[in-house]
Amino acid sequence: MSKEQFIKGRGAQLNVSNRFHEHSHEQRDDFLNYCASEGEEPEKTKTSIIETFPKSIVNKVTSPDVGMDYSLNPYQGCEHGCIYCYARNSHEYWGYSAGLDFEKKILVKRNAVELLEKKLKSKGWQAKPIVLSGNTDCYQPIEKDLKITRSLLQTFLKYRHPVGMITKNALIQRDLDVLKELAQDNLVSVAISITSLKEDTRRILEPRTATIKKRLETVQKLAEANVPVTVMMAPIIPSINNHEIMPLVKEVAERGARRVGYTIVRLNGAIGEIFTDWIRKAMPDRADKVLHQIENIHGGSLNDSRFGTRMKGEGEFAKQVEQQFRIARKLYLKDLQRPMLNCKLHADYKDGQMKLF
Predict the structure, then answer these.
(1) Is 337 exposed, middle or buried (0-12, 13-18, 19+ CB in 10 A)?
(2) Which residues form the Radical SAM core domain (predicted)?
(3) Does domain 3-17+47-334 have CATH number 3.20.20.70?
């Protein structure tokens, strides 16, 4: 595919049909040819922000594979545009496509802080870590202006409630002041996602994320502030980044990461079609090889929903990845214990201030 036809700054290169819609539409070749001849874009690439006001904000996580009990997502959709993102499928529940719509139509939960505070003050709630974000990144670009995630962190601090964070955006450095206070009472842990040490790989896989340099800097600054930080190499994609396991673990360990984790790519639901279209356009020379290797990891299919195997895969490739991580951890990391956050303080702060009697 010519460079002129590739949508720069976006991961997905098309909008796939929403499985919940009765009707679907497609772009015909004659329309695309017309756009090319007229110098017009077949898809509007500008991001739109859609305000929502949900009735609840804290979600119970039932999957045994993800290592969290509760999650909170202030945003739905994600402008980062990571081509492999499992969260793309969730955009269909809002009536949009898992493809370009996921990156361009960002739903903002304007009453997120109010709902969290209501939850933390409720009599029936007992403190358990709530993770920002289990689905879409809480530090995606719009957060710079809206500061919803910062307000949520301040709410967790006010009520002395444990919170976990997952992000691949260096914007988290803005909130180091709040994170330091939370860390003093062992109320926070952070996972930074770093898929590759190569900027060219990052740019094509995750077009609107923070650079690798900024993410490594973020790991180091969090560690220096005594905020427990884990690095997630997620996902590992065969023939794209699996050769980087050892150097990546070494690098993040030197920056102060306490733990490393990983997942292997899985292309569930609409993501299979989106990823296949993307790799044939972005990496045509190796597309078939990568797709066949992913199928071999997941029992002959791009789509794998089996609990217990879907995150790590199976077969020879999966075994090799597991072995490499085992060796890397032994060589470069000393603290492999998952940080246990403090759930004991919250009961004394349910009204927003410590009980004196």
Answers:
(1) exposed
(2) 64-301
(3) yes
